[in-house]
Amino acid sequence: MKKRKYAIFLGIILIVAGTIACGGKDTASEKDRIKEIEVYDDDNEPVTIQENEIVNTEFYELSGDKFRSYIKKEKFTKENWKEFFSIREEHLEYNEYQSEGDLYHLGIYKVHQKKDFCMVFDIVNDDMESRDNVFEKGTGTLGWGQNKSDGTKFQLTIDDVSCTKAEGTIIYVDIPEELWQPCSDGTDRKGFRVKDGEKLYEFYDDGTPVKLDMFI
């Protein structure tokens, strides 16, 4: 859970899928791009560490009560989905499991827990057409390769994403931006630490959902 980009090989590579939850389908077209779904365990708990295991020494450390004051629970709708989702780019180095390449990732980079949650959306621009995609409980991020067949790269922004259906509830941490600090573990993530009683937790902006109702 600590290193999202190293978990990417647990994803499912697909171009066309059958009927999926939330009433959506992935429909093929000549412009469809390979999509990668990074999955996660819905029972993931936050990373627990010991005092002598702290690597991210620059992290802000919040009390359990202060952390709880930032936790919010909202209905997920077609009107508010953009408050949670964003697109990030990632460069993948060549290794024994994969070739070198670049990806766009669509995900929720707030600390969050998806309960009964689902979004169906289309992506349409000059380079890409992918309709009835599903982002649901059990999905960490969705990724698309950036390279075209001619070697050039296509563009993708959050404005190319159109939500056609949204339902469910999301629990998230609405923490101020200044409390996010860079990790010291060699990754490009940011995070913060929480001391709740005798336990220490670390949270990261890598898009991995974690259990939050354990704090409520």
Written account of the structure:
The protein is mainly beta and 216 residues long. It has one domain (4-215). The protein is built from one helix and 16 strands. The chain has a five-stranded antiparallel sheet with strand order 1-4-12-9-8, with no helix packed on it. The longest helix has 6 residues, at 64-69. The protein is globular. The two termini are 22 Å apart. Mean pLDDT is 79; it is low at 1-21 and 24-34.
Coarse structural class = mainly beta
Mean pLDDT: 79
The residue fraction in helices comes out at under 10%
Query: How much of the sequence is in beta strands?
Result: 35-45%
Major sheet characteristics: 5 strands, antiparallel
**How many β-strand stretches?**
16
Specify the number of helices. Answer: 1
Distance between the termini: 22 Å
The structural domain count equals: 1
Low-pLDDT residue intervals, each spanning 5 or more residues: 1-21, 24-34
Q: What spatial form do the alpha-carbon principal axes imply?
A: globular
- Sheet with the most strands: spatial strand order: 1-4-12-9-8
Element pattern in H and E? EEEEEEHEEEEEEEEEE
> Radius of gyration from the CA trace?
18 Å
